[in-house]
Amino acid sequence: MTGFDPFALAAAGLIAFGLYGFCVCGHPLRRLLAINLVGNGVFLALILIARRLPDGPDPVPHAMVLTGIVIAVSATAFGLALIRRQARPEDGGND
Amino acid sequence: MTEALPVLLVFVPFLAGLGQFVLGRAAPWCQQFVSGLNLILVLLLSSAVVHGDPVIADLGGWGEPLAIHLQADGLAALMLLLTAVLAVAVSLYAIPAFRDEPRPAWRFWTLWPLLLASLNALFLSRDLFNLYVTLELVTLGAIPLVLLAGPNKTVDAALRYLLFALLGSLVYLAGVALIYAQAGTLDLALLPAALPEGTLSGPLAAALIITGVLIKGAILPFHIWLPAAHGNAPAAVSAILSALVVKAAIYLLLRLWTGPLEPLVSNGAGQLLGALGATAILFGSWQAFRQSRLKLVVAYSTVAQLGYMLLFFPMAVTAAWQGAVYHGLAHGIAKAALFLAAGNILYYLGQDRLEALRGIDRPLAVSLLAFGLAGVSIMGLPPSGGFTAKWLLLSASLQTGQWWWTTVLIAGGLLAAGYIFRVLRLAFLQADDATAPHHGPVPGPLMAWTATALALLALALGLISAPLLDLLGEMPGGTS
User: Fold this and answer.
1) I need a surface site. Which of B19, B116, B245, B403 has the fewest CB within 10 A?
2) What whole-number distance in Å separates Cα of residue B219 and Cα of residue B214?
3) Which residues of A touch B157 (CB under 8 A)?
4) How far is B288 from A50, CA to CA, in rounded Å?
5) Running DSSP on this structure, what letter comes out for residue B200?
6) pTM value?
7) CA B243/CA B337 separation, integer angstroms
8) Cross-chain Cβ contact A82/B173 below 8 Å
9) Worst-scoring range by mean pLDDT, B297-301, B325-329, B475-479?
10) CB of A49 less than 8 A from some CB of B
11) What's the complex ipTM?
């Protein structure tokens, strides 16, 4: 884990951009996207952690990423439904 | 036999939730059965825990490093007990409360057992990643419940709640990733030994985990999503959210602080958390005093009351441990009673502006009784559960020589008395017009008496504290 690792830099960058976006953006859709950026950064970091074993990748972080992606997808879908309901209250209840 | 209890506690309400989605109109009666069964299972589990070691269920029998365990110790048993008692009361209350609602409100009977299962799973989890999954399940179960208030009323509040909760859990997950990178395990019992000392990323991981949980737990300065969500949800839902859902996050903080994070955290971090708690107590109580709507008063009171549980961290002795956990119990019961009573008032008046409360003492006498009795526990007057909790915290602050927390405890109690009596005063004033318009019928006995029963239980917690504190036991890893 020594030396320059472009993937680690990318993970840190995604998390930083996401947190910045969450703090700066006001619109809920942008905030939801920012949260997804943070999530991708965290998942990338977990995949990097899986590489640390000498003999092949560690399966536990991979399982964590897969579970995390499932949760992130469903939560994002729920958030998008809410944002749509907020933007067009008249057709609420049908989505 | 006892090993099956934790598994049943997760799967019975979970399958019931799925079943009730299919059952439709018969669901309210099915839910009474489920919450009753849940209470019996928790009582069996507590009696097993109090007689000896923690009850551990080894799922799939995979053995130490790979296994997923469900574990019930004293702290988990107490939180399960609180959840089970509130589940019985809220499920009874919800029958009349949701009877006349339009069709979508019936989804309460599907979402509520799913949330119950997630809360049970959270209290029983023993590894960091399971805790992440159950935290997310609790959030995704709780937010749709907020939306049951009616078409488009609470969309903004629910959306803000969702965004903060998602951010909080990702920050928590980042901390878990760093912990795993160092220790190679996620099991709470194995972690303290597996963490290397003196690295920089250990405290960073601890800070991320604690920040994530603080966002989920609506601790100042992350409280901004709470009042709108808790203040606008249906009364039964507000009671669940305030008494259980945010408390689950603080539970997690107590559990992790005394377990895997113990070698990573410093005294300064404890003082910082204590300062956050003290600010939450003073700011939340002051805001509660300034609100003009009844349910917002109760919601800001939650912001304040959660702060008391954070006073454990700077002191970290057994008295503070027992005080913080007991405060969680007493506040859970009393706050549920307050929200149910406020819900009755809202049901009768059709609105909950404080000026409209004049002259409701006659028609809503029982609900006001519940509000007043629960208020006694929130203020921390003897002989209530709130008093016992504050007394324990007070003696911890004197025992550790940190007298400044005593002033916070006393000031918080006085401010709580201020906002409770402000509501009661208005309720007992003469109405200008004796035939003031009201919106709904007087709430039935089931709605009025479930709130009162909870309020009486909050008082009784002051008298039955000894067996419950025995069940909790000493602070894990503590010295005094």
Assistant:
1) B403
2) 5
3) none
4) 48
5) S
6) 0.94
7) 10
8) no
9) B475-479
10) yes
11) 0.93
